[in-house]
Specification:
Layout lengths: L1 E4 H6 L5 H22 L6 H26 L4 E4 L26 E2 L2 E10 L1 E2 L15 E6 L10 E4 L5 E4 L4 H12 L3 E9 L4 E10 L6 E5 L15 H6 L6 E7 L4 E8 L2 E7 L2 H8 L6 E12 L4 E11 L1
Parallel strand pairs: 1-2
Antiparallel strand pairs: 3-4, 4-10, 5-8, 6-7, 6-9, 7-8, 9-10, 11-16, 12-13, 12-15, 13-14, 15-16
Length: 317
């Protein structure tokens, strides 16, 4: 079995098969020409000969990646050993952690904004409520009956302890706007300093998926063998899915395909692909930042051993 470097495969991922073939031939011819010239200009020709070897090596890499794409089973993908020495991890104290806990996409919507703000404690002793709470969720209580300020929003711990108010300004306005629309927002304690008796919280604002333009597209190539590195078949992975599951849509330049995957913890499972015609008619040429998919009409027939599904593709602008 032939071996190929994983870094080489990734580095040339953006090139199409036609480009790989063209570059392989051009580099090979260029290497031969330089090698011939080097024979007539010795001893400086030695440098030209080394250059020819480097170009030939590049040509060989282009050719090898092209063959790997055509027949991945004939190659063994080798991972290069790390050149750096492993560093001993030093635990970061809870109060000094900078957490990043917001999911980009949830069943409720897409993360549009996130901010970090200082907590202005009601009383100095309220600081004790946040010790050990780094990364823990907080709540926001709207005090419409507050005689001093009916727009006041209290920050509360999961146990119900009131620790301080949201400062007036853009953040308070956004909270009221999102609450009025019934849209999701969430927050958590980010970090704190016992020496300074200060703390910060992060808040994320989500926009519902149904407020974005969308198209329903039939999932295809469910029986196709998944790409290298995926153990489970597309059929088995899709059979375990349900309506409403969030899926990712990834565009691969080298094959010009849109592959639909689902992430469960640290595992990414392939489910199928979007049909070429649908992509050309519905997706190409649109202005969007990312695509978000939601499974719909998932049907599994145990007798016929068939599975089908649609993907509602949301265009996140």
């Amino acid at each position: 079995m032939k071996k190929i470097n994983s870094k080489t495969v990734k580095a040339l991922e953006k090139f199409s098969d036609k480009q790989l073939k063209t570059y392989s031939v051009v580099f090979f011819i260029f290497a031969v020409v330089i090698a011939v010239i080097s024979c007539f200009i010795m001893p400086i020709g030695i440098l030209f000969l080394l250059l020819a070897l480097a170009i030939f090596f590049a040509s060989n890499n282009y050719r090898k990646v092209q063959k790997y794409r055509q027949n991945p089973e004939a190659f063994e993908v080798a991972e290069l050993p790390s050149q750096t020495q492993p560093q001993k991890s030093v635990p970061v104290p809870d109060g000094q952690m900078n957490y990043d806990l917001f999911d980009n996409v949830t069943p409720h919507g897409v993360l549009m904004y996130q901010y970090e703000n200082n907590i202005y404690f009601l009383h100095p002793e309220n600081f004790e409520c946040v010790i050990g709470m780094g990364g823990k969720q907080i709540g926001f209580s709207f005090e419409e009956e507050n005689p001093a300020d009916p727009r006041a929003v209290m920050i509360c711990t999961p146990t119900g302890d009131e620790i301080g108010y949201v400062n007036k300004g853009q953040m308070l306005d956004m909270l009221h706007d999102w609450d009025r629309k019934g849209w999701e927002f969430a927050g958590y304690i980010n970090n704190y300093s016992e020496a300074d008796r200060k703390a910060t919280y992060k808040i994320g604002f989500y926009r519902p998926l149904d407020t974005f333009e969308s198209k329903k597209i039939r999932l295809t190539k469910i029986l196709k063998k998944p790409t290298d590195g995926h153990i489970l078949s597309r059929f088995d992975c899709l059979s375990a899915c349900s309506d409403g599951d969030i899926v990712q849509i990834t565009h691969y330049d080298y094959s010009d395909s849109y592959v639909v995957t689902r992430q469960i913890h640290f595992s990414i499972d392939e489910l199928g692909e979007l049909p070429t015609q649908a992509v050309e008619n519905l997706i190409d040429g649109r202005d969007y930042k990312m695509l978000v998919g939601v499974l719909a009409n998932v049907e599994v027939d145990d007798l016929d051993e068939t599975v089908s599904a649609n993907v509602i593709v949301y265009f996140i602008a």
